[in-house]
Amino acid sequence: MKLSYLVTAIGVFSAVACLNVSCGSDDGDSTRNVRYEVSGTSIGPVNVQYTPDPSAISVSLPWTHEVTVDKTVQEVQINVSGADGVYGDSVIMKIYLNNVQVKRAGFLSISGSGSVSYHF
Hints:
By secondary structure, this protein is of the alpha+beta class. The protein has a single domain (about 30-120), classed as Immunoglobulin-like, CATH 2.60.40. It has one helix and eight strands; from the N terminus they run αββββββββ.
Protein backbone atom coordinates (compact mmCIF):
# COMPACT_ATOMS: atom_id res chain seq x y z
CA MET A 1 0.00 0.00 0.00
CA LYS A 2 2.81 2.44 0.90
CA LEU A 3 4.60 1.49 -2.31
CA SER A 4 1.45 2.33 -4.29
CA TYR A 5 1.30 5.82 -2.75
CA LEU A 6 5.01 6.32 -3.41
CA VAL A 7 4.66 5.32 -7.06
CA THR A 8 1.63 7.62 -7.45
CA ALA A 9 3.47 10.51 -5.80
CA ILE A 10 6.49 10.01 -8.07
CA GLY A 11 4.19 9.94 -11.12
CA VAL A 12 2.41 13.16 -10.10
CA PHE A 13 5.75 14.87 -9.36
CA SER A 14 7.11 13.82 -12.75
CA ALA A 15 4.03 15.11 -14.56
CA VAL A 16 4.21 18.47 -12.77
CA ALA A 17 7.95 18.73 -13.50
CA CYS A 18 7.28 18.02 -17.17
CA LEU A 19 4.62 20.70 -17.34
CA ASN A 20 6.83 23.27 -15.63
CA VAL A 21 10.12 22.53 -17.38
CA SER A 22 10.24 20.63 -20.64
CA CYS A 23 6.61 20.63 -21.66
CA GLY A 24 5.84 24.23 -20.72
CA SER A 25 5.85 27.21 -23.03
CA ASP A 26 8.78 29.60 -23.18
CA ASP A 27 6.68 32.51 -21.82
CA GLY A 28 3.92 32.53 -24.38
CA ASP A 29 5.64 35.10 -26.59
CA SER A 30 5.42 34.13 -30.24
CA THR A 31 7.59 36.94 -31.61
CA ARG A 32 11.19 38.14 -31.62
CA ASN A 33 12.40 41.74 -31.49
CA VAL A 34 15.08 42.46 -34.07
CA ARG A 35 17.00 45.71 -34.47
CA TYR A 36 19.15 46.56 -37.46
CA GLU A 37 21.88 49.19 -37.32
CA VAL A 38 23.96 50.51 -40.20
CA SER A 39 26.71 53.02 -39.53
CA GLY A 40 30.02 54.07 -40.99
CA THR A 41 31.96 56.81 -42.65
CA SER A 42 30.34 56.62 -46.09
CA ILE A 43 29.04 60.09 -46.92
CA GLY A 44 26.31 59.26 -49.43
CA PRO A 45 22.98 57.54 -48.93
CA VAL A 46 22.88 53.74 -49.03
CA ASN A 47 20.20 51.28 -50.08
CA VAL A 48 19.04 48.99 -47.29
CA GLN A 49 16.99 45.84 -47.62
CA TYR A 50 16.05 43.78 -44.55
CA THR A 51 13.87 40.93 -43.32
CA PRO A 52 10.86 40.95 -43.44
CA ASP A 53 10.60 43.84 -45.97
CA PRO A 54 11.91 42.79 -49.41
CA SER A 55 11.92 46.31 -50.87
CA ALA A 56 15.03 48.49 -50.71
CA ILE A 57 14.97 51.92 -49.10
CA SER A 58 17.49 54.73 -49.41
CA VAL A 59 18.82 55.98 -46.05
CA SER A 60 21.56 58.17 -44.66
CA LEU A 61 24.00 56.87 -42.07
CA PRO A 62 23.68 56.16 -39.23
CA TRP A 63 20.42 54.22 -39.60
CA THR A 64 18.50 52.09 -37.10
CA HIS A 65 15.30 50.14 -37.58
CA GLU A 66 13.38 47.76 -35.32
CA VAL A 67 11.04 45.00 -36.44
CA THR A 68 9.09 42.27 -34.74
CA VAL A 69 9.19 38.89 -36.47
CA ASP A 70 7.23 35.75 -35.76
CA LYS A 71 9.14 32.93 -34.07
CA THR A 72 8.50 30.81 -37.15
CA VAL A 73 10.97 33.06 -39.02
CA GLN A 74 14.26 31.15 -39.03
CA GLU A 75 16.61 33.83 -40.38
CA VAL A 76 16.88 37.60 -40.59
CA GLN A 77 19.14 39.44 -42.99
CA ILE A 78 20.19 42.95 -43.90
CA ASN A 79 21.70 43.93 -47.26
CA VAL A 80 23.36 47.28 -47.87
CA SER A 81 24.41 48.55 -51.30
CA GLY A 82 25.15 51.69 -53.24
CA ALA A 83 27.51 53.15 -50.70
CA ASP A 84 29.26 56.02 -52.47
CA GLY A 85 32.43 56.77 -50.69
CA VAL A 86 36.08 57.37 -51.03
CA TYR A 87 38.89 54.95 -50.43
CA GLY A 88 38.97 54.03 -46.73
CA ASP A 89 35.30 54.75 -45.99
CA SER A 90 33.48 51.86 -44.35
CA VAL A 91 29.98 50.62 -43.61
CA ILE A 92 29.18 48.53 -40.50
CA MET A 93 26.01 46.42 -40.24
CA LYS A 94 24.73 44.98 -36.96
CA ILE A 95 21.82 42.75 -35.99
CA TYR A 96 20.43 42.75 -32.44
CA LEU A 97 18.04 40.19 -30.98
CA ASN A 98 16.15 41.41 -27.90
CA ASN A 99 18.75 44.21 -27.46
CA VAL A 100 21.74 41.83 -27.62
CA GLN A 101 24.10 42.12 -30.60
CA VAL A 102 24.18 38.76 -32.38
CA LYS A 103 25.91 39.62 -35.68
CA ARG A 104 28.25 42.27 -37.04
CA ALA A 105 29.84 42.69 -40.45
CA GLY A 106 31.33 45.48 -42.48
CA PHE A 107 32.70 46.40 -45.86
CA LEU A 108 34.63 49.18 -47.51
CA SER A 109 32.14 51.55 -49.10
CA ILE A 110 34.15 51.69 -52.29
CA SER A 111 33.36 47.97 -52.82
CA GLY A 112 29.68 48.84 -53.04
CA SER A 113 27.75 46.26 -51.02
CA GLY A 114 27.58 43.85 -48.12
CA SER A 115 25.18 41.72 -46.14
CA VAL A 116 24.87 39.98 -42.80
CA SER A 117 22.37 37.35 -41.66
CA TYR A 118 21.48 35.61 -38.42
CA HIS A 119 19.93 32.13 -38.09
CA PHE A 120 17.80 31.50 -35.02
